[in-house]
Design goal:
Mean pLDDT: 82
Distance between the termini: 40 Å
Order of helices and strands: EHEEEEHE
Largest sheet: 4 strands, mixed
Radius of gyration: 17 Å
Shape: globular
Strand content: 25-35%
Number of helices: 2
Number of domains: 1
Structural class: alpha+beta
Length: 132
């Protein structure tokens, strides 16, 4: 338990991997969003259809809504499977953005998490040769 003052929204890609029986690479990505309980009545869960993304919409009375997303972009080992996982996660995130831009005029987005990028934005993250 983190604190009695928070409500936790979460998802895990691990459950899907455990059901498949194949544990390879780094399948243990999970995401979570913590919301203070006194704001919980203003929050609705967004169905992401992807275990690597947790998303909620905070409804602000008289102001635009705010969508908060926590993402775990899978590590890319350059396999066809991992490229599919990456495209699925990015596509799901794009679907959330598109649907809320259409239905929640003026809403804002906060998107954070583990993007598995290096500081230049390269995916997958490449080793820094200056330190090797």
């Amino acid at each position: 338990m983190v604190s009695d003052n928070f409500v936790v929204f979460h998802s895990s890609a691990m459950e899907e991997k455990r059901r498949s029986g194949i544990l390879s690479g780094r399948p243990f990505g999970g995401t979570a969003i913590l919301i203070r309980k006194h704001f919980a009545h203003k929050v609705s869960i967004i169905k992401t259809m992807n275990p690597r993304i947790t998303a909620v919409c905070i409804h602000n009375t008289g102001k635009p809504d705010m969508v908060v997303c926590s993402v775990y972009i899978p590590y890319n080992d350059r396999s066809v499977f991992q490229i599919g996982e990456y495209e699925s996660a990015v596509g799901s995130l794009q679907a959330i953005i598109d649907s809320h831009l259409d239905s929640h005029l003026g809403c804002s987005f906060v998107i954070g998490g583990d993007w598995n990028l290096d500081k230049s934005g390269v995916y997958p993250a490449e080793p820094n040769k200056d330190y090797l």
